[in-house]
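Before the break, one more example. Copy the sequence into your notebook; we will annotate it together after we see the structure.
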Amino acid sequence: MINNILSIAGKPGLYKLVSRGRNMLIVEALATGKRTPTFPHDKVMSLADIAIYTTGDDKPLGEVLEQVKAYAGGETVDIKAIGDDAALREYFGKVLPEYDRDRVYTTDIRKLLTWYNALLAAGITEFVAPEAETAANE
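Here is what the structure looks like once it is written out:
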């Protein structure tokens, strides 16, 4: 699940929430395992709070990551092998056909696939809580 996985503006990679201190969060980099504090002036966002624009209702990032996993067969996605921006948009169109092509930028798609690869490398393969997944299917 991605509830405790964070993105911090201005810092590369993804972070796992370890602890909450007074006026700060203690986070651990998924790639290196290094722990650092974040402060109130840092823009911290949980991946569970992010959604992708679609032609209908916005789709939570966890559900989109599950679709990427299903399309990629649970393997990492080689972003460079996909090719240029047009090929990347075409690939994402196969993963999520209803994404809003005007409001979702190529950089957003590239970041989403990079996050997907980082989560897999960290051993995180479940992106949606089981009860949320059954509620979404009903």
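Residues 30 and 120 are 10 Å apart (CA to CA). The first helix runs from residue 61 to 72. Try to locate both features in your own notes.
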